[in-house]
Design goal:
Length: 166
């Protein structure tokens, strides 16, 4: 049992750190820098690879975290309502929220944005007003869901890091 806990904890911490760190690096450094470089500069980023890596990390983090939560708490109210349990429960809820937001909003929106960009590029003519409007709507939705997902993943990381000391 001890070996399983060690392996799950290593997976949870390593994948969670990669996930939250990648989200913060994108939100605070890479995307603002690309926007300053001018329109279209974001096309040169390997967003599909970044998105895939973050998706895998979020899945590993969430699955390992849920298993750890179950194995450690046994869903006992005494454990859940303890200071450690409260910190880990709140961190878990934030992490699950980030995972769900990324899975059901950020990733599909990024896919739609890439498909629309591809259609506009293949057309060989200036984009239609409807396409530009849709592009703007999708970019705004992606920015919002990415921002909230980053906030939730960072909150999960912070809560779990300090839960032992509450």
């Amino acid at each position: 049992m001890q070996l399983i806990l060690i392996i799950l904890r290593l997976i949870h911490i390593a994948a969670g750190t990669f996930w939250a760190g990648s989200a913060l690096m994108l939100a605070l450094v890479i995307l603002p820098g690309a926007r300053k470089a001018g329109p279209g500069s974001e096309r040169h980023l390997p967003m599909a690879a970044i998105s895939q890596a973050m998706g895998i990390a979020s899945m590993l983090t969430t699955a390992a975290g849920l298993l750890l939560y179950w194995l450690l708490s046994g869903f006992s109210w005494a454990w859940i309502s303890s200071p450690l349990g409260i910190g880990l429960t709140l961190g878990s809820l934030a992490g699950i929220g980030a995972f769900l937001l990324g899975t059901f909003s950020t990733a599909p929106t990024a896919g739609k944005l890439a498909a629309l960009g591809g259609q506009m590029q293949v057309a060989g003519s200036p984009p239609q007003p409807e396409q530009l409007a849709e592009m703007g709507r999708l970019q705004a939705k992606l920015a919002s869901s990415s921002q909230w997902s980053t906030i939730l993943a960072t909150a999960a990381l912070a809560l779990m890091a300090v839960a032992r000391y509450l």
